[in-house]
Amino acid sequence: MSQHDPKHDPSLDSSTNTKPITQSPKSDRPKWLGWVWSTFKYLALFLVIYTAINWWRQPVMPADPQLQLTDYQGQMVDLEQLSHDSPVLVYFWGTWCGVCKVTSPTINALAEDSDYPIVTIAIQSGDEQTLQQYMTQHDYHFTTINDPNGDIFQQWQGQVTPSFVILKDGEMTQGLTGIQPKWSLKLRLWLSALG
């Protein structure tokens, strides 16, 4: 009769012990739902970062802003008076600005079909004649103040072009920068009109 050696008991040997491996149950959630969730998280993160950067770079209304200006054609533009009737979109741009080549056609379309006044300020874009030629060449019809030295933009602490300001009752209600779709600008103007 052989003696049983507990040290060599095959039932205790891990190499020969074959327990069934249990797998975690598969999730009932479809794969596409995971993709949607991931996309949502990244989009939310992008929006938070974009909003923070936009807030940091937006123009700041001067303590004593110059709101009575003359456009490049010699017409008086009273931003304060205009803003008492309805919100006014002020668009800071430049003929030299690459991004403005995308946003200016949007502003032109908005100026043509909007009930809200649109006033633009062309920063360091040459003298009146040079600006006139640029406006004609691109078929822009929006009201434009020439800011040949960038003094107006500097008063507003502008950092980037394009920049946008919405004025209501002589006060800035919103400021933003970068590419803005037409629907977003219309919505912002409408919301400013409600407030």
H-E order: HEEHEHEHEHEEH
Enumerate the spans where pLDDT stays under 50 for 5 or more consecutive residues.
none
Strand order of the largest sheet: 5-4-3-6-7
* Main pleated-sheet profile: 5 strands, mixed
Task: Please tally the helical runs, counting DSSP H or I stretches of 4 or more residues.
Answer: 6
Helical amount:
25-40%
Separation, N- and C-terminal Cα atoms: 99 Å
Radius of gyration: 31 Å
Describe this structure in words.
- The protein has 195 residues and is of the alpha/beta class.
- 39% of the residues lie in helices and 18% in strands.
- It is built from six helices and seven strands, in the order αββαβαβαβαββα.
- It has helices spanning 31-57, 79-85, 100-113, 128-137, 151-155, 182-194, and strands spanning 68-70, 76-78, 88-93, 118-123, 143-147, 163-168, 171-177.
- The strands form two sheets. A five-stranded mixed β-sheet has the order 5-4-3-6-7.
- The longest helix is centred in the first third of the chain and has 27 residues, at 31-57.
- The chain is globular.
- 26% of the residues are buried.
- The model has no long low-confidence stretch (mean pLDDT 86).
Note the topology.
Blueprint: H1 31-57, E1 68-70, E2 76-78, H2 79-85, E3 88-93, H3 100-113, E4 118-123, H4 128-137, E5 143-147, H5 151-155, E6 163-168, E7 171-177, H6 182-194
